[in-house]
Write a structure and sequence with these properties.
The structure is a homodimer.
Chain A: E1 2-6, H1 7-12, H2 15-24, E2 29-30, E3 32-37, E4 43-48, E5 51-56, E6 59-65, H3 72-81, E7 83-88, H4 94-99, H5 108-112, E8 116-117, E9 126-127, E10 132-143, E11 150-162, H6 174-177, E12 180-183, E13 187-196
Antiparallel strand pairs in A: 2-12, 3-4, 3-7, 5-6, 6-11, 7-10, 8-9, 10-11, 12-13
């Protein structure tokens, strides 16, 4: 059975129901902890599911920020210091990762017990346990007029990855790294590989490689 | 063992290696087939991993388009007709979904054998087999100066979802819907749930709900 919601149905639905539904529609989302430190030295850690690829040459990443949420500290620290870290989450610490979204006073590292790490004189803190960590610097921001969402674009300046997850062709085995993915607002998963597929050509169905 | 790549290492690496690596860094990505039809009536279907949540009230979705790729037909059709569909992919047809990215002449539905479906007089074609289908209309586009990536924002006008995957609170069970997620350029996975977690509060570690 198929359930149909028109735009009117969506707009008239309960706001809690609507928020859950709309947040699930795109499908599985990446999960990263963003580490920042204010100029005054207070560090911050928050989970984000809106991080995506912008380009490989130069290596660029994009992040969407909703204004007026608990995530605002992260954006303010990035605008102030121009650097931040992205850290993949594993099943070992996904509950602590979710917990960083609570309204804490002070550092989420201390409060949740996630250990911070400083690498190569990079100002922003990394999450020590993370199997894939990126050091990034701000390139530009744009505010979307339609709902004040902020699109932040950053350069990838450092990659730290556990070698067991790095293949010879440069691709990463996210199953081996145990990266966690999120659906909706609060549901966490790991990936279970179906296959890698060959470059698509018209003459035959792509093959597993 | 941790492998470190500096920005110089990344820029000096082989372009194939770099493209694989950078495309994997954000983590698991959503996978949607975008269905469009040109004004002249030729329909098109292409896989996208850059679809994300922009807002719930009104319900908005964002898509990033790289210019000058095979995906360009999709963008041109949307600019021309202002409508498109988003369709989740399942293990049953993920190879055909990948195959739609080949350089076809004519309709990818016909060529790959994926059946199209028209619902509620909506001009753009849906993928019949998909367990979650959205009918969307163009709101605005912005071109990112840094690399000509196009950010398209659209309104969600129709949701069609298999009822077995819709929970009472509005959230979707993507494991039950069997939605596929993608890593890098060519690797496909399903999700394996860890848990849903309670709303995060400072007083205790979030609980499974």
């Amino acid at each position: 059975m198929i359930k149909h919601f028109s735009k009117e149905d969506i707009l008239e639905s309960d706001s809690f129901f609507r928020r859950n539904l709309i947040n699930c529609l795109s499908g599985y989302k990446s999960l990263n902890l963003i580490g920042t430190k204010s100029k005054s030295g207070i560090n911050n850690l928050a989970p984000f599911s809106q991080v995506f690829h912008i380009g490989a040459s130069p290596p660029l990443v994009g992040i969407l920020f909703r204004p007026h949420t608990v995530q605002r500290d992260t954006l303010e620290n990035i605008l102030e210091t121009e650097v931040f870290t992205l850290n993949h989450v594993t099943p070992e610490f996904y509950k602590e990762a979710h917990w960083t979204s609570a309204r804490w006073e002070g550092s989420e590292f201390e409060k949740t017990g996630l250990e911070e790490e400083y690498l190569e004189q990079f100002y922003a803190p990394f999450v020590k346990k993370s199997p894939l960590k990126l050091g990034c610097s701000l390139v530009e921001t744009q505010t979307l007029k339609i709902n004040e969402t902020v699109l932040l674009i950053a350069s990838i300046d450092h990659i730290y990855v556990e070698e067991k997850g790095l293949r010879q062709d440069g691709s990463l085995d996210l199953n081996i790294l145990e990266s966690v993915t999120v659906s909706g607002l609060d549901e966490y998963h790991v990936g279970e590989k179906l296959s890698r597929l060959s470059y698509a050509k018209p003459d035959k169905l792509p093959q597993e490689i």
